[in-house]
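Replying to the earlier thread about multi-chain prediction with a worked example.

Input:
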Amino acid sequence: MNRREAWRARALGLLALALMLAPLSLLWTVFGDGIGVLDWQFLLAEPEQAGRSGGIGPIIVSTALVLLICMSLAVPLGLGTALFLVEQVRPEGRLNLTLQWALDGLGAVPSVVFGLFGYRLFVVELGWGYSLLAGGCTLACMVLPLFIRGCEQALRDCPQSYRQAAAGLAISRVGYLRRILLPFAAPGIAAALVLSAGRALAETAVLLFTAGYVMRWPESLFDSGRTLAVHIYDLAMNVSGGSPASAATALVLLGFALVIQLLAWQIGKRPLSFAR
Amino acid sequence: MSSSTPLSLRPNLDWLLRAASLGCALTAAVVLLLILLFLTQASWPLLQQPASLLGTTWQPSTGQFGLQAMLGSSLLSSLLALLLAVPAGLLVSIWLIFYAPRAVARVYGGMLGLMASIPSVVYGLWGLVVLVPLLGAWMPPGASLLAAGIVLALMILPLLMVQADVALRESARRHLPAALCLGVSSWSAIRRVLLPAAWPRLWPAILLQLGRALGETMAVLMVAGNVVQWPGSPFAPVRTLTANIALEMSYATGPHLQALYLSGWLLLVLALLLMALARIYGSRT
Amino acid sequence: MTASTQPPSLSIQNLSVHYGEQGALLGASLDVAAGELMAVVGPSGCGKSSMLVAVNRMTDLTPGARVSGRVLIDNQDVLAGAVDVQALRRQVGMVFQQPNPFPLSIAENILFALREHGVRDKCELHGRMEQALQATGLWNEVRDRLHKPALGLSGGQQQRLCFARALALEPRVLLLDEPCSALDPIASATVEGLIDSLKGRYTLLMVTHNLAQARRLADHVAVCWVRDGCGCVLDSGPACELFESARDPQAQRYLNGMLC
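Result:
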């Protein structure tokens, strides 16, 4: 019997290994194709020849701007909503149930649909045209459910005993929030923020319809601009000979994604010092 | 909760907190409504004559907007992805929990986490540069339903495995000791007791990932071949609803644009349905 | 594999169980004669359950668990390395504190293990299942719904099903870990009646918190205690003797209901 189990374990292990071949191949390819092109010049310079050569400087800036807009909107809105869900609503109540459904629904919306929505609302109806602002706002809508969930979790993790102690001392809700709840939940919220930013960073379809394709240095938030993800797509699909630059950009994007994962992991683990 | 006592030095802002957070919550909830509203409005004329959308021919230049083939391709590629990812994911999850040495399992888990953070467009790039030529050498043209299925499977695998891990560990906690006390092998216990016990928790996760696969745009766009047709074999190139929107949005006008909005509306409804199913099923168990 | 018809003797000799650095049980020794029920009593944390799970080698599943000493069933040490653990667990059945039938049908709960141990003939399968259910008094209650989910049964019925599940394999030793503590009084009484009926045909080792239950059911009693942060056996012997006059004063006090 034991030999059969050992054989089974080996077979399953082989399957696990086989499964990892694809992502490993991905990393190998992206690294191999892209590393030759990647250098400081690449990170800082403008793209030339439709991106085949030159660099991705403006694209990094556009990406950063879009992320900034996205998180500036998503964080207050999301935190406010999470606070509402945790502090102001009864768990069994209809309001809570409706909100949970609405948020789950929002989380299920395909990214291309967000793109259509963003196009219609921000680009056309509000007349912003293809712009970083439109892209950032649409992305904010998209990461909202994810961020709210993360905040909710972080807030709910705060022990009830703190709340009871605060009530016993007749501390106002705002005071409780400021001095006890938020500092306690800060690591969790920060982790949620970082993860949401990571999600926004990886998004492409949404931005195709809202922020556009332009490769120049952005001069205002109403300028169109492309993000790293869009650039990867464009170079791979629409520009012949664009593969190496695409791979190099992918390396940069993966690098950021990795940093974000590590950040989130680190923050989520250790309590920030002022939470004591 | 309590309001401040007369001894407090600053005015009670609790009402402000309540109002502000309510405002945020309503805004968040309203976004979904807005999306539904906008899409319905944008595709309204075509929504009213659904028959025209059921055809198989998609030729905007002649006013034919048959979504059938693309809807079929979307469904087939997502189902293929599930077919590939679910059994493999379950088996590897079982390996991670019951058979793998602890250090190996930790490293593998970490790699899965990294895998989950790879953007879809990078999967698409890899698919374009590695997978499609590989498949093409085997069975031209390479860019095909199968390529889309494989890439989608890779994308949904990590999250599926996270859910499977949770479900399997829970059912192992409850039933494994009792099963092993009866002198049966681990594998028999897993196969006949733990997996059936874990199944109710796996279904919602599978439904959710199906929704994700249906909604995926970039990776599929880059490897599926983009020919509007019902695939005669897994090696035939196809175009999904999502890829279609991404490809044609930049130059569509009039009824063509409405048709694109409509396919978006269709995708939205499908995704919401799957989410609702997953939620209802999940809450029943 | 045919089991001999006589229940075996069970002898635990100098058994120690450690979980990592933490000692759970130290130097436990007791003897259970063939066909008898020994009740192991004592406060929480004194290693009673650890003793139990060492007998059917369930400790093998806990990472970091170390077991030393000897456990002799009919004079064969089950802790020895060469022992076929799966065969051992067929001979030594276990019932847990929380009723834990599998989320399968009532019939499948019993047939699953039978099939895994090589019983394929449908008549034999059904026969042994019926026998086991009869022995636990469940047969008449469930004969019409054998294919319904086992989780639909009441708590007492579920626990009796767990007994039936173990009995179907025709074990020779039964390990019972507080089998009644999660049940209401009426269900508990039914299960106690079942346990009583098993004496003589099986050798039983039962952990219980309930001294009155031990008094009712046990032929022999062992009292465990915590010394220096580790469990040990203070005293053991025939039930009537021990309840009247245990040699160890601590054990005497505990059996008379005083807590310290």
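Strands of chain C lie at 10-19, 22-32, 37-41, 65-73, 76-77, 92-95, 173-177, 203-207, 220-227, 230-238.

Feel free to reuse this layout for your own posts.
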